[in-house]
Write a structure and sequence with these properties.
Blueprint: E1 2-3, E2 19-24, E3 27-32, H1 43-58, E4 64-69, E5 73-75, H2 80-83, H3 91-108, E6 113-117, E7 120-122, H4 124-130, E8 134-138, E9 142-144, H5 158-166, H6 168-177, E10 181-182, H7 183-188, E11 194-196, H8 201-213, H9 217-229, H10 235-250, H11 253-263
Parallel strand pairs: 3-4, 4-6, 5-7, 6-8, 7-9, 8-11
Antiparallel strand pairs: 1-2, 2-3, 9-10
The structure holds ligand LHQ.
Residues 37-38, 40, 76-81, 83, 91, 94-95, 99, 120, 122-124, 144, 146-147, 150, 152, 155 line the site of ligand LHQ.
């Protein structure tokens, strides 16, 4: 079932959709769809991407998300040509009001996001990849913090995610020197969980998303929150947070179903209740 925010635009011809969302088997696949510009992000595209995450967040039939790019790139970051327009929004406003909400929406989304990194992820495109919960890369994919090459600083969460994902030393190299991280090195540094041939990426991402879609949604949402929260709290706080979340998860029908399935030696059927 496609969700197409552009199709709902009132009056006239609907604008071309730059972000495609398809939902099947409990998995929403979001595709950045501007391959002629390596999926570089324009204002309408950012608006569509934010709308897509918000719609998915409200859709209880969606259990997992795959984020990928059309064509040979994942995303080349901000569309630099758009920035040359005389009425371009000031950078501070653009980042605060158009990028940060997307990153917040991704991290507050209850469903886990699998990044299917099909090609280069540059600048804010790399930030989008970092904000996913799990990343899988195609063999030719790469990550580059292109910000420094144009005299800018990492944004959209890149300075926060990257040291946590690859360690401070590699993050400093990538952020300061703009060194490109190949898919193979990304796997070595733990940034991606696996590297697969390009023609197997979509299948692999859907297999991983399918595994997530078969798990208990509320437990997954709490797990995602607890992992994020762990970066900003001490052990005592984390222990108490775990206890509270376990109390909530333990009261769900899905926990009862998980226990019953274990005892009856059958796969569980989680409903999200
Ligand atoms: C592009 C782009 C692009 C437009 C390729 N824009 N057309 C936030 C707030 C506001 C402003 C500033 O930024 C930010 C955050 C950011 O994201 S800053 C970082 C912005 N991104 C970049 O600096 C990356 C620029 N792109 C590249 O360095 C290269 O294109 C990469 C390394 C991604 C890929 O290189 P190649 O594989 O050699 O491809 P290419 O350079 O030949 O690009 C193919 C086409 O895509 C080309 O168009 P053309 O009409 O000549 O075929 C490029 O102009 C276009 N394109 N990135 N960001």
């Amino acid at each position: 079932m496609p969700i197409d925010p552009a199709a709902a635009a009132p009056g006239g011809e609907p604008a071309r959709s730059l972000v495609r969302t398809e939902v099947a088997d409990g998995i929403a696949t979001i595709t950045l769809d501007r391959p002629e510009a390596l999926n570089a992000l324009t204002i309408p595209m950012k608006e569509e991407l934010l709308a897509a995450f918000r719609a998915i967040g409200r859709d209880r039939s969606v259990r997992a998300v795959v984020l990928t790019g059309a064509g040979r790139a994942f995303c080349a970051g901000q569309d630099l040509k758009e920035r040359l327009e005389p009425d371009a929004t000031p950078l501070v406003v653009e980042v605060r009001e158009r990028y940060n909400p997307i990153i917040r929406a991704m991290r507050s989304l209850p469903q886990p996001i699998v990044g299917a990194i099909n090609g280069v992820a540059a600048g804010a495109g790399a930030s989008l990849a970092f904000a996913c919960d799990i990343r899988i890369a195609a063999e030719g994919a790469s990550f580059v913090l292109a910000f420094g090459r144009i005299g800018l600083v990492p944004d959209s969460g890149a300075s926060w995610f990257l040291p946590r994902l690859v360690g401070p030393a590699k993050a400093a190299e990538m952020a300061l020197l703009g060194t490109t991280l190949s898919a193979a090195d990304a796997e070595r540094f733990g940034l991606v969980v696996s590297v697969v041939p390009s023609d197997g990426l979509a299948q692999e991402a859907h297999t991983v998303a399918g595994r997530l879609a078969g798990l208990a949604p509320r437990a997954l949402a709490h797990t995602k929150r607890a992992l994020d929260r762990s970066w900003s709290v001490g052990l005592d706080d984390a222990l108490e947070d775990e206890a509270l979340r376990q109390g909530i998860a333990g009261a769900t029908a899905d926990h009862a179903e998980g226990l019953a399935a274990f005892l009856e030696k059958r796969p569980p059927r989680f409903t999200g209740e």
